[in-house]
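Help needed: design a sequence for this.
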């Protein structure tokens, strides 16, 4: 995942592959991208309260 850095499986037995690509489930790809960026910003803002007590590697792992 380019925004969150998650490793997403490309195939799972019995699961349609398009479901494994969240962006492809949205008709409006630009809207998906905007929401993903908004959510990443919300994660960063919320995590700010913990930055002083976590290891630098943990901080780097977020969006």
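Sure. Designed sequence:
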């Amino acid at each position: 995942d380019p925004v969150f850095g998650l490793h997403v499986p490309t195939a799972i037995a019995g699961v349609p592959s398009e479901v494994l690509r969240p962006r492809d489930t949205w008709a409006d790809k630009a809207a998906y991208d905007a929401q993903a960026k908004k959510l990443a910003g919300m994660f960063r803002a919320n995590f700010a309260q913990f930055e002083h007590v976590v290891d630098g590697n943990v901080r780097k792992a977020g969006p």
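Residues 17-61 form one domain.
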